[in-house]
Write a structure and sequence with these properties.
single chain, 212 residues, 5 helices
Length: 212
C-alpha cells in the first residue's frame, strides 16, 4: 500500500485535494442534515396521525404468553396510568429505545405507573432472550404471530410503525400517543405526580423505526 509520503511526492497537490474533498463532503452533510431531520419529523407526524387520539377509549385486550400476567387484561390495570409500548426485538429502532423505556420504568413504576410491552416477535426464544438480556422487568405480551398478518392487538391501536407508544389514563382513555418516545415522556412528566418524586428531564432517543 502506498504511504502518505509517497503519495505527496508523486502528487504534491494530493493532500490539498484531499482536504478540499473533506470540506466539500462536510458541507454537503450539513446541507443534507436539515432535510433528513425534516423528513423524520414528517414521518413522525404522519404515523402519529394514524394512532388513537387523546380522549379515545383504549381497546381492551388480554396479555398473551405473559408469564404470571398471562390472561390478564389491559382493563385490569384501570385506576393506574399505563405506558403501552408496541415493539419487536428484530426492530433496530425498538432496540435503540429499550434503554430509554427501561429508564422510564425505573423512574415511574415506583410512582404507580404500569408498563406493558406488546411485542410482534414470532420467535419465542429470541423474544424472551432479548427481554431477559435487557432486564425488561415489566409485563410483556406477545401473540407470537406475524405483525399485521396474524396479530390482532395492533389493529385496534392502529399501529403501522414501531416502536409506537401510548400513555393510558386511569379511566382507560388515551392520554398521549406517538411513535416518538420523547412525546410520551413529556406527557409522563406532566402527570399530577408528587413534584418531589418527578424525575429530572432526560431526552429520549428517537429513530426511524420500522414499518410494513
Amino acid at each position: 500500500m502506498p504511504t502518505f509520503s509517497y503519495l505527496c511526492a508523486v502528487n504534491p497537490h494530493k493532500f490539498t485535494d484531499m482536504k478540499r474533498f473533506a470540506y466539500i463532503a462536510a458541507a454537503l452533510l450539513c446541507l443534507a442534515l436539515p432535510a433528513a431531520q425534516a423528513q423524520d419529523a414528517a414521518a413522525t407526524a404522519r404515523y402519529d396521525s394514524l394512532l388513537l387520539k387523546p380522549g379515545e377509549a383504549a381497546p381492551d385486550f388480554a396479555f398473551a404468553n405473559a408469564g404470571p400476567a398471562d390472561g390478564k387484561t389491559l382493563g385490569s390495570l384501570r385506576g393506574s396510568y399505563v405506558v403501552l409500548e408496541f415493539w419487536a426485538s428484530w426492530c433496530p429502532d425498538c432496540r435503540r429505545q429499550t434503554k430509554d423505556v427501561a429508564r422510564l420504568h425505573k423512574e415511574y413504576a415506583p410512582l404507580g405507573v404500569e408498563f406493558v410491552g406488546v411485542s410482534f416477535d414470532t420467535d419465542s426464544a429470541a423474544w424472551q432472550r432479548y427481554v431477559k438480556a435487557n432486564a425488561m422487568e415489566w409485563t410483556q405480551s406477545c401473540e407470537l404471530k406475524k405483525w399485521k398478518r396474524g396479530t390482532t392487538t395492533d389493529r385496534p391501536y392502529r399501529v403501522d410503525w414501531i416502536p409506537a407508544f401510548y400513555l393510558i389514563d386511569p379511566q382507560g382513555k388515551v392520554a398521549a400517543a406517538s411513535v416518538d418516545l420523547a412525546k410520551v415522556e413529556a406527557a409522563l412528566k406532566a402527570l399530577p405526580l408528587p413534584a418531589a418524586a418527578k424525575p429530572a428531564a432526560a431526552k429520549a432517543e428517537t429513530g426511524s423505526g420500522a414499518a410494513l
